[in-house]
Design goal:
By secondary structure, this protein is an alpha/beta fold. The protein has helices spanning 3-14, 24-40, 45-59, 62-65, 70-85, 113-127, 144-155, 171-185, 202-215, 230-242, 260-269, 290-297, 303-313, 316-327, 336-348, 352-357, 366-370, 375-385, 389-393, 400-410, 414-435, 458-470, 477-482, 513-526, and strands spanning 101-106, 132-137, 159-160, 189-194, 219-225, 247-251, 273-277, 285-287. Strands 3-2-4-1-5-6-7-8 form an eight-stranded mixed beta sheet, with helices on both faces. It is globular and about 75 Å long.
Length: 527
């Protein structure tokens, strides 16, 4: 969703790099580029004005003028101001001192309230160990009750639906009955799904206010479609005035709209974005972290969210066994069965393009990631499943006739099988080196490679790092430019790493061969 905004901001910062000092003209030009980027992203005009004023004021101050690398300081300022307009700190749900905690969902029709009710219930059940109950209080929209029952069944949570809906029943009465039901059956959380309209009207507001008064919710969450742009702010303000709400949930963050709603609502309404829905599956639901979202927008990645996803997906014992195999005998005990298990675990985290996109510096490989065909993973699984246990345990025995049999069994070409075996050996070598602390073969700036001292790689790696340090260029960007090209090195004091917009971002950095082959494997096989 924020790709266009990220590209425009990167272009604005690119003109600042290499400057030893910033003039007023540089600051004005950069502010103008940032203003255009935000307006094109559908960010509300008052928010843009306030944001640009804060950035210009801080950029003209002593913190930039006196900095060793003022361009990096400007990027830091923009990051901090982005975090501010996104809400500042992450806000958790308020839980009632005496259960049940009542959460009421409000918003326009089509914003995704019903699906989000299921996502929120599943998240509360699995991560907060609560016992939620869904309440079907949307009795206007056709089949809304049925949809909530289906969503509740998929989430594994009960649904209280005494009325059939489709215009039949009193939603306020249903909400009151739901509270009695929750207390009787000791549910710890009640999530009330309310009706929406195609637009804001008096009837909608009155019904939502009546339900609010009937159940006295601990949290009222306003669900907004992140793809509706400027209208999101207008609608949010109308609901804030008419019903009131405590937090915002952004739905459809996986869309390709410009995403200005996310950058506007918290600032305009004074209510923080608390959750984000970024897909159609019930698992595609996350707590909204302003600092992480700002990092994504500026192309810095989101490593913390990646780690949290991995912790939820991977089995710790299995991961330890796999690591042990990779550390011993140069990784020769790591088989195709292990490779397949690891690949399937990664797939559970979501699309590979999304996972790689969370890594710092991934923006420079955006074209490769966008062109990556997820079906390539299905073909790899088919090939491995067509092998015998002996072949998966020792791929060296796969000769010409075996490859022909495997290709026939998996519905692929012999070249596909050959390519997979070759890529497996490369990947095993790379993972074994990483597991042993020797760094990633073929990737500059990783542990054990020049430019990253003190991060593993053994004695040889430390010697290389020491050697690289003595040849490092000047900390002054102007002097460094006159010294000509130099080998990749650690950032100068006060300078950000390449992934955060540092000078290394202009080096001839390339993905390791194993990653390149994975991304380009399908094209190679076709040739």
């Amino acid at each position: 969703m924020f790709d266009t905004l990220s590209d425009r901001l990167s272009a604005a910062f690119k003109n600042l790099r290499g400057k030893g000092r910033l003039t007023d003209a540089d600051i004005d030009a950069t502010a103008r580029e940032i203003r255009i980027a935000l307006l094109e992203a559908d960010v509300a005009l008052p928010v843009v004005k306030e944001f640009i004023a804060a950035v210009k004021e801080r950029a003209a101050g002593a913190e930039v003028r006196g900095g060793l690398n003022p361009a990096q300081q400007v990027i830091k300022i923009v990051n901090e101001e982005l975090v501010k307009i996104l809400g500042g700190e992450t806000r958790e749900l308020r839980m009632a001192k005496r259960p049940p905690t009542v959460i009421m969902l409000a918003g326009l029709q089509g914003a995704g309230k019903t699906t989000l009710a299921g996502k929120l219930a599943k998240w509360l059940k699995e991560t907060r160990h609560q016992t939620p109950m869904l309440v079907a209080a949307d009795l206007q929209r056709p089949n809304a009750v049925t949809q909530l029952q289906v969503v509740g069944d998929r989430a594994g949570v009960p649904v209280f639906a005494p009325e059939p809906g489709n215009g039949v029943g009193d939603p306020v009465q249903v909400a009151k009955q739901a509270m009695d039901e929750a207390r009787t059956k000791q549910y710890s959380v009640v999530i009330v799904d309310t009706a929406g309209r195609l637009g804001v009207d008096a009837e909608l507001m009155q019904q939502a206010a009546d339900i609010r008064d009937a159940v006295t919710p601990d949290e009222i969450l306003f669900v907004v479609d992140a793809m509706i742009g400027q209208d999101a702010v207008v609608t949010a303000q109308a609901f804030l005035d008419g019903v009131g709400f405590d937090g915002v949930v952004l739905s459809k963050l996986d869309g390709d709209a410009r995403g200005g709603a996310a950058l506007s609502i918290a600032q305009v309404t004074g209510r923080q974005v608390m959750f984000a829905s970024n897909g159609e599956k019930l698992e595609d639901f996350d707590v909204f972290h302003p600092d992480r979202m700002a990092s994504r927008i500026l192309g810095m990645g989101d490593v913390m969210s990646l780690i949290e996803q991995a912790e939820r997906t991977f089995d710790a014992d299995q991961a330890a066994k796999t690591a042990a195999k990779l550390q011993k005998k140069g990784g020769k005990d790591f088989t195709l069965d292990d490779f397949l298990a690891q690949m399937q675990s990664v797939r559970k985290m979501g699309p590979l393009t999304k996972i790689f996109g969370m890594l710092p510096g991934a923006a420079q490989f955006k074209d490769q990631l966008e062109n990556f065909d997820e079906r390539e993973i299905d073909r790899i699984e088919a090939v491995i499943h067509s092998m015998t246990p002996a072949e998966r345990a020792d791929p060296h025995i796969i000769n010409g006739s075996r490859r022909a049999r495997i290709a026939k069994g998996s519905g692929t070409e012999v070249a596909t099988v050959s390519g997979l075996v070759e890529r497996f050996f490369e990947a095993r070598k790379m993972m074994s080196a990483m597991a042993s602390g020797k760094g990633m073969p073929g990737m500059p700036g990783m542990p054990g490679m020049p430019g990253m001292p003190g991060m593993g790689g053994g004695k040889k790696g430390k010697q290389q790092a020491k050697k690289g340090k003595s040849k490092r260029g000047s900390g002054n960007p102007a002097k460094r430019a006159n010294q000509g090209p130099s080998q990749p090195a650690e950032p100068a004091p006060g300078e950000l790493p390449a992934a955060f917009g540092g000078q290394l971002g202009n080096s001839n950095f390339e993905l390791p061969d194993a990653f390149k082959n994975l991304l380009d494997g399908d094209d190679k096989n076709k040739q």
